[in-house]
Amino acid sequence: MSVLGDAESAARLISFGMRPKQLPGRDVVYADLVRRYGEDSAFKQLTNSVAAGLGLMVLDVSAMSGAVLAATDESVFEIKMDSYARQSKIRERRETEKVLHGIVHLATASLGYPRPDDLANDTYIGRVTVEQVDGVVREACRILDERAAKAELNNDPLSDAPELEQAWRAYARRPAAAATKDGRLASDTTRGMVSRALRFLAEQGFLVQVNTEQGGTYRTTPRYQVQVRELAADSAFEELLALNVVSVGDGAGTLRPSISDTL
């Protein structure tokens, strides 16, 4: 194949990766490009270079996940808070609100893959619910609030990031659930916030909704596993797991927080 033909094929593989719900198993051309990426080192290098030129990183390419991409800082493809807010129908875009949604996404990832073995096992499928994510975040807020109170007594400030302290206290003050007239979760509740975050992840091909009971249950996808592997290196993810508010329920991938489901 010519150089131009190779470049076009590399770009096409990247374009497939930018379609969140497109998978190699559903498209012969996509599957062939994924196979070539794994077998042809020159084509792999070319694809990575084309991606880099677009402000993207190739995190993984496999028959299960397809091409999984991540935007670099300042990339035109980077999802900014304003874009996320529009897609998730977030009314407020203050700094505290941004931190709150960041905590929700961290909790979702830690529930989906609480153990290193879960991330290493390509066949592992986690399950998360709106209720579970909300419960984990509330328990994390309670623990952080206790730590802050002890630190204040000892005249030893807990953190030099006041927006984080405002965020966990703001989350704890919000009601967990309240129904609208048509029976949906009210948007200004914490479970309403979590529900929007999980729907956004489903739209990006990271989760698949299993049912709609109690706000919804979702299963993880190979694309999400690749993304969380990258996230697991982040100190914020490690700190959330270190609070010990997430535990594994059984061996079937059904995960439950180590707190009451009635929270």
Main attributes of the structure:
263 residues, mainly alpha, three-stranded antiparallel sheet, two-stranded antiparallel ribbon, 11 helices
Describe it.
With 263 residues, the protein is mainly alpha-helical. It folds into two domains: 3-71, no CATH class; 81-243, no CATH class. It has eleven helices and seven strands. The protein has helices at residues 3-17, 28-39, 41-53, 81-88, 95-112, 116-120, 130-153, 162-173, 190-203, 222-231, 235-242, and strands at residues 56-62, 66-71, 127-129, 207-211, 217-220, 246-248, 255-257. It has a three-stranded antiparallel β-sheet. It has a two-stranded antiparallel sheet with strand order 1-2. Strands 6-7 form a two-stranded antiparallel ribbon. α5 packs across α8 and α7 (130-153) packs across α9. The longest helix has 24 residues, at 130-153. The radius of gyration is 20 Å and the shape is elongated.
